[in-house]
């Protein structure tokens, strides 16, 4: 049963809720990855590169904006998204044959 932070009476409750959220985040990251896979499939016949700098900039700006709107540290979350983006680019480069990976 999901508890709000105020309803947590012990560290065990807190840990259970953090574990629940971490599992949900991984599920969302897995869903996000399916779109990365599909992007590579679409880019290949379209002749698009894995790394499209204007889109990278847009996604990073979105991460900052979304973090700020949620009351989170925009620098920290932009950094996380930069890592997600780079990981996706490396994967797409391999799928598109842009590297020897």
From TrEMBL:
<dbReference type="GO" id="GO:0004106">
    <property type="term" value="F:chorismate mutase activity"/>
</dbReference>
<dbReference type="InterPro" id="IPR036979">
    <property type="entry name" value="CM_dom_sf"/>
</dbReference>
<feature type="binding site">
    <location>
        <position position="43"/>
    </location>
    <ligand>
        <name>substrate</name>
    </ligand>
</feature>
<feature type="binding site">
    <location>
        <position position="92"/>
    </location>
    <ligand>
        <name>substrate</name>
    </ligand>
</feature>
<feature type="domain" description="Chorismate mutase">
    <location>
        <begin position="5"/>
        <end position="96"/>
    </location>
</feature>
<dbReference type="GO" id="GO:0016835">
    <property type="term" value="F:carbon-oxygen lyase activity"/>
</dbReference>
<dbReference type="InterPro" id="IPR008241">
    <property type="entry name" value="Isochorismate_pyruvate-lyase"/>
</dbReference>
<dbReference type="InterPro" id="IPR051331">
    <property type="entry name" value="Chorismate_mutase-related"/>
</dbReference>
<dbReference type="GO" id="GO:0046417">
    <property type="term" value="P:chorismate metabolic process"/>
</dbReference>
<dbReference type="InterPro" id="IPR002701">
    <property type="entry name" value="CM_II_prokaryot"/>
</dbReference>
<dbReference type="InterPro" id="IPR036263">
    <property type="entry name" value="Chorismate_II_sf"/>
</dbReference>
<protein>
    <recommendedName>
        <fullName>chorismate mutase</fullName>
        <ecNumber>5.4.99.5</ecNumber>
    </recommendedName>
</protein>
<feature type="binding site">
    <location>
        <position position="15"/>
    </location>
    <ligand>
        <name>substrate</name>
    </ligand>
</feature>
<dbReference type="GO" id="GO:0009697">
    <property type="term" value="P:salicylic acid biosynthetic process"/>
</dbReference>
<feature type="binding site">
    <location>
        <position position="32"/>
    </location>
    <ligand>
        <name>substrate</name>
    </ligand>
</feature>
<dbReference type="Pfam" id="PF01817">
    <property type="entry name" value="CM_2"/>
</dbReference>
<keyword id="KW-0413">Isomerase</keyword>
């Amino acid at each position: 049963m999901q508890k709000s932070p105020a309803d947590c009476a012990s560290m065990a409750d807190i840990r259970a809720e953090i574990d629940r959220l971490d599992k949900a985040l991984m599920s969302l990251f897995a869903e996000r990855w399916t779109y990365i896979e599909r992007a590579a499939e679409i880019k290949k016949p379209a002749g698009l590169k894995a790394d499209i700098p204007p889109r990278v900039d847009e996604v990073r700006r979105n991460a900052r904006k979304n973090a700020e709107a949620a009351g989170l540290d925009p620098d920290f979350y932009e950094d996380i998204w930069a890592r997600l983006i780079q990981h996706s680019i490396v994967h797409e480069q391999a799928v598109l044959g842009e590297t020897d990976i």
